[in-house]
From TrEMBL:
Active site as annotated: 182
Residues where Mg(2+) binds: 44, 83, 115
Gene giving rise to this polypeptide: panB
A Pfam family assignment: Pantoate_transf
Native organism: Rhizorhabdus histidinilytica
GO molecular function per UniProt: 3-methyl-2-oxobutanoate hydroxymethyltransferase activity; magnesium ion binding; methyltransferase activity
One GO term of the biological process aspect: pantothenate biosynthetic process
Protein name per its UniProtKB record: 3-methyl-2-oxobutanoate hydroxymethyltransferase
Catalysed conversion reaction: (6R)-5,10-methylene-5,6,7,8-tetrahydrofolate + 3-methyl-2-oxobutanoate + H2O = 2-dehydropantoate + (6S)-5,6,7,8-tetrahydrofolate
GO cellular component, one term: cytoplasm
Amino acid sequence: PMKRLTVPAIRAAKGKTPVVVLTAYTIRMAQILDPHCDMLLVGDSLGQVLYGLPSSVPVSLDMMIAHGAAVVRGSYHSLVVVDMPFGSYEESPEQAFRSAARVLKETGAAAVKLEGGAAMAETIAFLTARGIPVVGHVGLTPQAVNVLGGYGARGRGQEEYARLIDDAKAVAQAGAFSLVVEGVVEPLAIEMTRAIDVPTIGIGGSVECDGQVLVIDDMLGMFDRVPRFVKKYEQLSEKIDAAVATYAADVRERRFPTVDQTYQPRK
Ligand code: KIV
Ligand code: NA
């Protein structure tokens, strides 16, 4: 059996081998993705993807812990990273530690991810010094949708571009072992990747990032509309639609169940 990848192993991938990451929220999906991935991210995107919430803002720590535990149970190779949800870490390093310690203790995951740049540097250093590895997340940070005003690409203006470079450096300097770079103009993703010594994981970033991540339901084609940065590797919603249409017709035409799916008295 494969040994679970460690935080130092992910960090050491920088400049050597691309880091493969997908989101996972449930045990069966974790089992299927695990052998192919280096990290499984239990993203707070589960708010929209699984629960139909309008953004990730309403997601709770209890929701992240429930799904984090399921993904850990469904994997033994990939490093499992759980998103810290909005409101569980921003107040202080102490609040962040309290929340993140619950995540590690109650899920078995090895690391957490939190959104934000220079403003989160002190918190990232505080967690890392106390045994909690942190993945950073800069650029388009969906928990800040109410400040940003939407999900458009970041770093188009000179001032914002420069500030985001500083954010990436601050997060890496604080001790994050990896950095998700989401929804930024490509030159910015490339410059961030060159500027820091831990792997950048792009999503709407650049092929030059040190790794890539996608939301699993997006890449499998579960949704009609997806952001520009998604490549649909499958059209699962169409396949499910066809399968369910066949089932519905079978029920209505009394073609299901057959003798194969029913219990007969023993002779
Ligand atoms: O919540 C999420 O799925 C994420 C990834 C897309 C990076 O944060
Ligand atoms: Na997230």
